[in-house]
Amino acid sequence: MPKITTLHDVYVEQLRDLYSAENQLIKALPKMAQAASSPELAQGFEDHLEQTKEHAARLEKIFEGLGEKPTGKKCKAMEGLVKEGAETIKENATPAAKDALLIAAAQRVEHYEIAGYGTVKNYAKLLGEDEATEFLDQTLQEEVETDEKLTEAAESINVDAEAGVKESTSATHR
Ligand code: FE
Ligand code: FE
Questions:
Q1: Cα(117) to centroid of ligand 2, in Å?
Q2: In the prediction, which pLDDT does 167 show?
Q3: Are 159 and 97 a contacting pair, CB within 8 Å?
């Protein structure tokens, strides 16, 4: 591994981390969609899968411009988040409770990405990488929108999950 000495090096290192994160998500999101009971939530995961492919493609374009390869790093934080998502998928839960858990896992992922893209966007800006700044900002906005959509979806799903808890509690007391 070459020594990281400049902000440019830091920028490239962080971009590689994000590229790994996006590629891990491309594999995970179809499983999240399949596990969702709410058709809206499943569609939301499908839609974000398409966006996520675009996020990876944007990073590839940035690397092309830098004359560097995007591969060579594994994002261990995303690996952990995806593992938690996989645990959620296997959880024995009512449909609404499972959906609430999937949203909880997905929002952690989006917040992680928002943090990462916010940071690299600022590097790109400082480094005068105008096109990359634009790309990174587009992706950042899509991550924020996805997080907001998940919050919206949770509004009704959490209420359903709460009703499910009450139903099963009253059932055991009968
Ligand atoms: Fe993304
Ligand atoms: Fe995302």
A1: 10
A2: 58
A3: no
